[in-house]
Specification:
Layout lengths: L8 H8 L3 H8 L6 H14 L5 H6 L6 E6 L6 H15 L3 E6 L4 H11 L3 E4 L8 H7 L4 E4 L9 E5 L1 H15 L4 E5 L5 H13 L5 E5 L4 H12 L7 E4 L2 H13 L9 E6 L12 E4 L2 H17 L7 E4 L2 E3 L9
Parallel strand pairs: 1-2, 1-3, 3-4, 4-5, 5-11, 6-7, 6-8, 8-9, 9-10
Antiparallel strand pairs: 10-12
Helix pairs in contact: 1-2, 1-3, 5-12, 8-9, 10-11
Amino acid sequence: MARRPSVTSTQIAREARVAQSTVSRVLNGGSVSPQTRERVLAVLEKYDFQPSQAARSLVGARTGVVGVVIRDLTNPFYPVMVKAMERVLHERGLRLFLVTDVVAPEEGVAMLRREGVEGAIFTAAVATDPLPGRLSGHGIPVVLCHRTIDGFPADQVEADNVEAGRLAAGHLLELGHRRLAMLTGVPGASTAVQRGAGFRELTADLPVVEVEGGFDYDQSYAAVRALLSGPDRPTALFCQNDVMAHAALNAAVAEGVDVPGALSVVGCDDVPVSGWERMALTTVRQPLVRIAQVAAELLLDRLADAGRPPRHEVLPVELVTRGTTAPPA
């Protein structure tokens, strides 16, 4: 199949009988008469013309690129959020550039700046993360999504994580459990801090065993196996996210501990797999899709009005009772 001829914006302008600046306005959504826009678009389509990011940057044009920084693609939580963000951005003619925590902060800054992102959404920031601050320092708008940082001057959106911890504790206490344990997430992450605070608030008069799972499957699996093989096995376990709860369920199988007969397990997130019949995880549901949509909307609003005060949105959560919790034997 023959390749289409390579052309420049100057050639596009000449064939469409317009100025080169008019071609730039059409490419970037500027004000152009309908007849002129139609004529330019016809020539652009004829040559399948796509301006390079480098060329756009040289003339100060918008790149239409938004960076999204996530922690771990293996967590089913993140694909749900990324897909929801992408839909909102696509409707506004923007595309998504994904960065994972495989890269170092310095490399992440360089990648995002090299791509010419107009803004960035962080889904897994912690208080010690240098990347959001460095991007802001370069004048790139930042939105914190799902994870928040106290005092950080940016738009932020999260679920009501304190209430999530309360709901998990309240459910287990109502069932009659008094030997409780909590599998905690990444130290310093707002989700771990807040969910832990809510859980402790309702269980303050009880001894609660806490073990660190780091929001990681393998780490959580090992931690729960050690917990269940010890002398003071709990009758109920709150896991601060669903991935850790999935690990806990498998660890219980490995240790021969019946769920929910001998151990009740509660997660937090309600990722799609948690509702599958063989999983049937009792969990606290976050509005994952809505959190992601709000994050994208906050960034779009910021791009439209850079001077407005930062907003902090907190969305409600709800307990979803399934088959992994029951009264203690």
